[in-house]
Amino acid sequence: MRSERRTVVPKSVKEIAASENPTGQKPVLILLAGTAGAGKTTFYESQLRTALPSVLKASASPIEQAETDRERTRLMKEGQSFVYQDRTIDFGSIREAQEVGFGVKVFYVGTENPNLNMGRVLLRVRNGGPFAAQTRIPDDYAQLPDAKKLADDLMLFDNTAHGHGHRLVAHFHAGELMKLARSVPKWAQKVFGREFERWLGSRERGWRKAR
Fold first, then answer.
1. CA nearest to 72, candidates 50, 48, 53, 55
2. Which residues have C-beta within 8 Å of that of residue 174, sequence separation ≥ 6?
3. What is the pTM of this model?
């Protein structure tokens, strides 16, 4: 029997995604980033859509992107929470949203193998979805350290394992590491490996003192 594909997200992540602030004081912008074929749309549909029905997607078409930019400006002006989906992290949007009182969270979806992404893109095309050129497949993690510093939250998800859904790898809040998975993929280690080691070391020392 074929198992149902699902996104595995701890309750705390769902709460962060839906934190539109119950008092209505602070709207939320979620930047959902990751290379083509990483699984951004699947993540949005399964985890964010209910709490944040407004979603905008970056486009390679100048005409479509201009319309997206206008809608993004409108949502920010009206203080409506929304998700912006793109391959890269738009730091200009982060600053603009923060200036008008938004909380900003970056959810980044990555995989270990670009060939896996291309396979997913080809499958998507076969099912009538949009195509992404192969040059747009490789991940670019260079933006993640700056996103950690600038956004209120940065959450890393790995979507390498087929059929197992998106796995939370790390959660940074206000630039500080708050949660870390027991198994960390190489792409995340490449960017934050030293920080992960320091965090684990400090926790281990704390456990020893508590004994």
1. 55
2. 152
3. 0.81
